[in-house]
Design brief:
This protein has 184 residues and is of the alpha/beta class. The protein has a single domain, classed as HybD-like (Rossmann fold, 3-Layer(aba) Sandwich), CATH 3.40.50.1450. The protein is 35% helix and 20% strand. It is built from four helices and seven strands. The strands form two sheets. The protein has a five-stranded mixed beta sheet, with helices on one face. The chain has a two-stranded antiparallel ribbon with strand order 4-6. The longest helix is centred in the last third of the chain and has 38 residues.
């Protein structure tokens, strides 16, 4: 574990798509990433990353972030499978999903290790679609494909809230600095 202080919030908001397009519905997170990026491209404080199946290799990309939005094919623990269901989960405080993919490791493992290392970002949201088919093949099942536009809308709303929160916290920090005699 690093003993160096982390400059939380210095890095842009991260929108991280994960999944494997060669395993049908496991590619839902990457499809969501493409849509969200096309709708929110140009926001300076946001970085879009295709994490594919990199798993724990993505630890470094989380470091220094104040806000992370992860897009994936997900199945909440204990729920009866409902393919095409959209989930919006606060992943900064809970183990929210079970692995439904052939990722090198699941989002839970990534966030769990980040938590152990003390590098979990303060706000982590997971937006995803419950998969129907996770097996070798190209393309999304009908249930997941039909859910993609609505899931992208939910993800864009979450991202907009993160951008607003980040700008408000930056304004508040600048105001505190000004009151302390620290220039902007």
């Amino acid at each position: 574990m690093s003993t160096e202080p982390r400059n939380i919030g210095a890095a842009p908001i991260l929108v991280l798509g994960v999944g494997n397009q060669l395993l049908m519905d496991d590619g839902a997170g990457l499809e969501l990433l493409r849509l969200v990026e096309s709708q929110r491209a140009g926001i300076e404080s946001v970085e879009f990353v295709d994490g594919g199946t990199q798993g724990l290799a993505l630890l470094g990309v989380l470091d220094g972030r104040s806000h992370v939005l992860i897009l994936d094919a997900i199945s909440p623990r204990g729920d009866t499978p409902a393919p095409g269901t959209i989930h919006d989960i606060d992943a900064s405080v809970t183990r929210a999903t079970k692995s439904t993919s052939a990722h090198g490791s699941s989002v839970n493992e990534l966030l769990g290790v980040a938590r152990l290392m003390g590098s979990i970002p303060p706000e982590v949201r997971l937006v995803g679609i419950e998969p129907e088919v996770v097996r070798t093949g190209i393309g999304l099942s009908d249930a997941v494909r039909k859910a993609v536009p609505e899931a992208a809308r939910v993800a864009c709303e979450r991202l907009d809230m993160m951008v607003t929160a980040r700008s408000q916290s930056g304004t508040a920090a600048r105001q505190r600095g000004s009151r302390c005699g620290i220039p902007d």
